[in-house]
Each structure stands twice: as structure tokens, then as C-alpha cells.
Amino acid sequence: MLELAILGFLYDAPLHGYELRKRITALTGHVKPVAESTLYPAIKRLEKAGLLGRATEPGAVAAPRHVLTLTEEGRRELRRRLAEPAQQDITDENRWFTVLAFLRHLDDAPAQAGVLRRRLAFLEEPASFFYDGERPLRAEELDDPFRRGLLTIARATSRAELAWLRETIASLDD
Amino acid sequence: MLELAILGFLYDAPLHGYELRKRITALTGHVKPVAESTLYPAIKRLEKAGLLGRATEPGAVAAPRHVLTLTEEGRRELRRRLAEPAQQDITDENRWFTVLAFLRHLDDAPAQAGVLRRRLAFLEEPASFFYDGERPLRAEELDDPFRRGLLTIARATSRAELAWLRETIASLDD
DNA sequence: CCGTAATACCTCGTAATCGATGTATTGTTC
DNA sequence: GAACAATACATCGATTACGAGGTATTACGG
């Protein structure tokens, strides 16, 4: 998720680590903050893997900046990760939102539609959080107001997203 | 999140690891699967911390089972974690849903309402995923259909949850 | 001129997680 | 009767993440 965000932001423009951190914080930080001690090692990993390069520039205000740029391999890697997301990128909302935030970079309508279809298939599977043996329990069947709320919220989310997915897939298919 | 789920399920009834795993998979597995190699060490951690005890019973079908029971300290710990969730339990949907799934165990309406109020306050903060400098961007301002969808979905979810939270807090306050 | 905040980067130890793999038993299917 | 799935638990190494702490500079208010 973090690596995807790094690649995604750098696809648009070279950035230094500190700026990258602010953008990632704006994107996902209110939900799941990213520690600096996670970001900088992640940058190093990607650099070591040849996905990005760095150039040192004098800092605008303080210490010198390490401006990060995607290599051609890095650009390919982002497109690959967007075109073939891991299953958890599809099912986990946090990760899925990160995929959505950068999916435009895929720049290939059928491939984009394919990714949306995977999410659609996932949301269309009948799934609950609570079961009576095999049978999924409906919100109305639960005494617990909190679990009932959980199902209610999940269903509302799902309905909104399904509508958007169907609409967007249709428009990509044109 | 995993530890909370373990404590939460065991609060109701003693279970062996394998059964625990099935319940956790039903609860959160379609979104974020839990590997066995994560669950068993987590059980050991909690056991070592004195939160749960184990008793070996002959297996119903195969190998002997380790039936896990919450100790009194484990029961206190669950209530404590539910009454004072970490900030990420409030903001991260996956973790928040786990809190909701077990919040009834808190068994104290004002404390439950307090937890819901924290989530309410979080959702009421104006937050976007995309910014123009300081100013949060609205869905309508984005060209990118995927980012627009992301905001649309997030807003729909948020609206549904806000309604439920306000309603439930009101009924807990009676 | 002193403290604080912001900019900008980094390391270290610890903890958590995962995938792969291993062990042993019972029940079911070909 | 030989596979195979399901039950039931466990370890190990590699990866990832986090909190705490560190370094250095500029800008600003008191």
C-alpha cells in the first residue's frame, strides 16, 4: 500500500521524501498514519530495487532535499501493480482506495475496467460478518445494536460502491 | 485488531485455536485474511501476558485441542481496550469494525456512547483525500473519474455511518 | 538570544505478520 | 486401499512496520 502510494505520487512528478510524506498523509493519513521510520526505509527499498533514483538538491528552507524520480522500470512496475493488484488490494478498503487513487495512471480503459470488475465481483459475493453455521445473518436478525450497525453501514457502503462501479465500468466499455 | 478479536470471541465462550480461526475468518477474513502463522503466535502472546489460559482436550475429530479461556485479567483487558480504543481503532475501518463487533461486551451504555462519540467526532472532521494546498477538493472538482469515485464512495459511507451513530448515541443516552 | 516550530533526513531495536513447511489423525471419495 | 480434504497445532526465516531517538538548518516570536 505504501509502496504503491510512493510509486503513484512519483509517477506524476519527482518529489522529495518530505513532500511525499505530506501527500501520503493527506491521502491516507487520517485513517492510517505513516511513520517516517516506515517511509524512508520504503524509499530505500524501492531505490535498491531500481524503481527510483535520487538527486540531491539544496533545500529550499533547511536541509538538502533528495529529489526522487521514477525510473522507467519504476513506471512499468506501477502500471503492473495497478493492472494486476494483489487480492488484498481488491478486498481491503484501505488498499483498494490507494489503487483507485492512482488507477488513472494505467491509461488503458479495458485494463482499468478489468480492475473495477474484480472489485465488483468481490462486492457481489454474498458475504456477512456473522453466521449461523453456514448461513449469513442479516442485520435484522441480530440483537446486538452494534453488530446490527456494522452490517447496516457495510451494506450502505457496498450499495453506493456497486452503483458507482457499474456506472463507471459501463462508461469505460464505450 | 487480531488480539481484540481473540479476546472478543473468547469473552463469550472458551474456544480452541482452530475454531477461533474460523470465527475470525468469518468476521474479517473476506477483507483481510489472517494467516495461521499469525494467529498461533498471537495466542501465545496473550497467554504469556496472562490474559488467557489453555486446557488440552481430546480432539473431536483429529489432534487434541487446546481450549482457550479468558482469565479474569483477560476479561478486564478486553473491556479496557473497548472502553479506550487506540486512535487507529477509531479511524481505520477494519479496526473500527472489530471494535463494533465486540462493543456490546463493554456492558455500560455511557462508555459505549463515549466510544461512538469518538468515531462521530472523527467522521465529522472535514477531511478529504485530495487537496489543493490547504483546501480539500470536492468530488466535483476532480477530472479523474477514479478519484471522484473514491470521494463519492467515502462520502456515502460516511453519511450512512453518521446517521447510524447519531441515532444509536441518542438511544444509548436514554 | 533563546526557545520553539518547521523543514529535511536518518538509524536502531522491537514487534508483528506472512508464506512455506512440518506433524499427526480421521473421514470421505474414487 | 490410496488419495485427498479437513481437523488441529506448530516453527522458522524474511519482510514490514513502528516508536523512540538523533542530526542539522532556517524562521519567528518574546
TrEMBL record, chains A, B:
Domain of life where this protein originates: Bacteria
Domain Transcription regulator PadR N-terminal: 6-79
Pfam families according to UniProt: PadR
Name of the protein in its database record: PadR family transcriptional regulator
Species the sequence originates in: Streptomyces cylindrosporus
